[in-house]
Write a structure and sequence with these properties.
The protein has a four-stranded parallel beta sheet with strand order 2-1-3-4, with helices on both faces. 40% of the residues lie in helices and 17% in strands. It is globular and about 50 Å long. It is α/β, with parallel strands linked by helices and 130 residues long.
Length: 130
């Protein structure tokens, strides 16, 4: 019998999106989270939303901390970098870091700025769609 306690995940990921009242809007973000969980189950992933739906970033960070994570990467699921990505999200991150000074919180660039995403979108746009 193994009496070693299960180890806590060292890191977690938050997929951060704007949010919508329409529940169908969240499906693509949640599909990415499911895919991540399937491919890397040892890294907990959660979706968080800025407004119009739950859960919010504060709630999701608390969930990950309850799992024992030591660092959290927040990935903005924005194609463009508007006011939310430039101003609102950094302010939320600063407040969370002040609230949890012992946890490493990292704000990643918006997904639409990643060269791999730009390349993928170009390939999709150029495909025949069949």
């Amino acid at each position: 019998m193994n009496t070693t306690p299960p180890s806590s995940p060292q890191r977690g990921v938050v997929l951060f999106a704007h949010g919508s009242r329409d529940p169908l809007w969240r499906q693509p973000i949640e599909s990415v989270a499911r895919r991540m969980a399937e491919s890397t189950p040892q890294v907990p992933v959660r979706c968080a939303y800025l407004e119009l739906c739950a859960p919010d970033l504060t709630t999701v960070v608390a969930e990950l901390l309850d799992l024992g994570v030591q660092s959290i990467a927040v990935v903005p699921m924005f194609l463009g970098v508007g006011k939310h990505a430039r101003e609102d999200l950094p302010q939320l991150m600063q407040a969370l870091q002040a609230q949890h000074p012992r946890i490493l919180l990292t704000l990643r660039p918006a997904i639409g700025e990643d060269p791999a995403m730009i390349e993928l979108m170009a390939k999709i746009a150029l495909s025949s769609g069949e």
